[in-house]
Design goal:
This protein is mainly α. It contains 9 helices and no strands. Helices cover 72% and strands 0% of the residues. 22% of the residues are buried. Keywords: Membrane, Transmembrane, Transmembrane helix.
């Protein structure tokens, strides 16, 4: 843990600090114009919008880096970052009768064009995910013992997203087991989910900064 903390210095943590500052400023500005604190965490609200913005910023930064260094073989990372940003904005179900990840879109009476576009998007994401697992995961696992900030921040991001998705719709998930969740607990879980997703998006931007900085010529 000591070695990790030494890696995350003022220089390498600048993007993370700026991201947190921007998120805090946007949240404070929103609180000035609304008395409903809960509105900040609603679907399509400021917190969700900031999460998407950070995902897209990471994708754009990585794209510029790949283009400048002719690293086209890493295109799958950009696709997955864009997919995460679009998912935050619910774009996966905004332009079709059903979500592109839902079987009803392809088995129902949706227009053929929507089915074709949805299938193409799903295939693209699957191919990108498979490339990430086959091409990048082995090296990622080998570098974990080196205790570099990049890899362990990614582990933290995956952990945050896993917990966030687990508590998303907590009342609905526990209902089949006969467990009733109070409105306060359900609201708390929803706010915690959106907050963790925002934090994960900021961390991903920091991971991109570390990757670009390490690959930059000295």
């Amino acid at each position: 843990m000591i070695r990790i903390s030494r890696r995350i210095t003022l220089g390498t943590g600048t993007v993370f600090g700026l991201g947190c500052m921007i998120a805090s400023l946007v949240t404070l500005l929103c609180l000035i114009f609304t008395e409903d604190v809960y509105a900040l965490f609603h679907e399509g609200g400021p917190v969700e919008g900031m999460s998407a913005a950070f995902w897209f910023a990471a994708a754009l930064w990585l794209t510029v880096h790949f283009v400048r260094n002719s690293q086209w073989r890493m295109w799958h990372a950009v696709v997955l970052l864009c997919a995460a940003g679009m998912r935050e904005l619910d774009w996966d179900k905004a332009f079709t009768q059903e979500g592109v990840l839902q079987l009803r879109l392809y088995s129902g009476d949706a227009p053929l064009v929507q089915k074709a576009i949805g299938a193409a998007i799903v295939v693209l994401i699957l191919v990108a995910g498979m490339r990430l697992l086959i091409r990048d995961l082995p090296g990622f696992l080998r570098r974990l013992p080196l205790m570099r900030a990049d890899e362990w921040l990614v582990v933290l991001v995956v952990s945050l997203l896993f917990v966030a998705k687990t508590i998303d719709g907590l009342g609905r998930k526990l209902a089949p087991f006969g467990i009733e969740v109070t409105e306060w607990v359900s609201g708390f879980a929803g706010h915690a989910e959106e907050s963790m997703e925002l934090f994960a998006a900021i961390l991903i931007l920091q991971v991109v900064a570390l990757h670009v900085g390490r690959k930059a010529p000295r």
